[in-house]
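Reviewers asked in the last cycle whether our approach scales beyond single polypeptides. To address this, we selected a multi-component target totalling 531 residues and predicted its structure end to end. The input consisted of the following lines:
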Amino acid sequence: MMDGKCPLVALLAICLSGVAVVTAAQERDLTDVNAALARRGEGLLVTRCAVCHSQDLVSQQRLPRDRWLATIDKMKQWGAGISEEEADLLVRYLSARYHPGLPDQPVPADSERSQAEPLKTEPEAEGPVMGIANRGACL
Amino acid sequence: MDISRRSLFKTLLQGMGAGLLFSRRLPPALAIGEEPGRNESGPLITRVTRPLDAETPVREFTSFLTPNHRFFVRSHFGPPAPELISEAGWKLRVNGLVERSQEFTLKDLKQLEPVTITAVVQCSGNGRTFHRPKVPGVQWERGAVGNAEWTGVRLCDVLARAAVKEGAQHVQLQGADRPVMASVPLFTRSIPLAKALHPDTILAYEMNGRPLPVLHGAPLRAILPGWMADSCTKWLTEITVQPETAKGYYMETAYRMPVKPVEAGTISTGPSTPVEAMVVKSLIAAPHEDETVKVGPVTVQGVSWSGEATVVQVEVSVDGGKTWEPARLLGEDLPYAWRQWQWLWKARTAGPTTILCRAIDSRGDTQPAATPWNPGGFLWNGWDRVSVTVVA
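The resulting structure, written as structure tokens, was:
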């Protein structure tokens, strides 16, 4: 979770420990970041979704918004205890974070404890989101 | 060669050219060569921690049999409560359209004639991560497959005891695994009667000569040689003979393929059919991804299989699929097992190279460059590819 820090600082901290370089394009992305959404999203993943399965099943998906919507809907039907508002928030969070443009990468086994990553608030389209291709390398 | 099972598996653990030890009974596997770090990554790659979904590192496929502790694990809900699968508590019920509904203990089953079959078991979603656009589900790469020796009894022998009635068409398989919440649909599957009565369809209680491990369905798992693993129910407790296919999410919605090709990325509403037989496929087990090889001879090796046909050729390309060279098929051709293959590559030019392979089966089916997209991301069998760096 973001522990209340400025997302830019958090991202830099993560990146400094790796090899990725924050490009100008990425910096521009960061102005879109909504840390509050990430905090609530991550919170819901733990309290509402991890009841039945670990979060790595969620974080390994790379889906456009409509598929996230359908997935959350299915989970709700199957018994996930989330309100309309929470479902809506999760769809926004997951489609901003785990979108088709994010590179595939092996999901580390301890991803349940991994930090929330800064977000774009709204993905424009269903296609790959440009300009943030290196973001995954930070994790 | 007289090696006890125990020491044999110990050797497998140590990863020492294990396949060679099987040569008395099985087609030979190849020596693995220098592979430092083979044990560093652990026996399996975890995709989902809970319930456990984990795949085998493809480099393990240099051995003919996939050892139990390295065999991929797919769980819908994970192992059942221990008392449901303990020798004392477990029973197999056979009912539905039969003359004599009955229960079998494991001891009862072991009175029937035992059979052993070497067969590939593969998750329907193996390779899902390669479909574009992305499909929701466990993002398997290449290793949700393995080849093992399964020992058990024929399902037809069990059904004969119960005497299948007129009108029976399908056989429903139910395991003891249960979801965390009762609102989640059970993993209930059915198979057509003809496949159930096929003499090679078995209920296995041993895997590679050892009692079936809990993660692989102990005490009893259905094995349908040639078919995808979604029909190979683990922790089997109930067989119901029925006039129709089973109802429910895992038959009516999941594990289905569109009958006609669908446009990539669309949610199809057209007719679909359950995933059944495996499609022709091959994998490169060595060298492995990102390996550095020296200019000169490089042994490329792997495995190949096809569900209800025989692999007749495996081809390798090092020029992006422009030209293909035939690989040598090794060992015997066993009907449901995979076939190992080998190709000697004379690596001439330093730099990055992609090695591709594809298999062709006795029906003439050839592994395509990429598998047509389908909404469940099933049956991926695109050319396998491994990127290596050649150094002088």
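Residues 1-33, 106-118, 120-139 of chain A have pLDDT under 50 and may be disordered. We regard this as preliminary and will revisit it once experimental data from Aim 1 are available.
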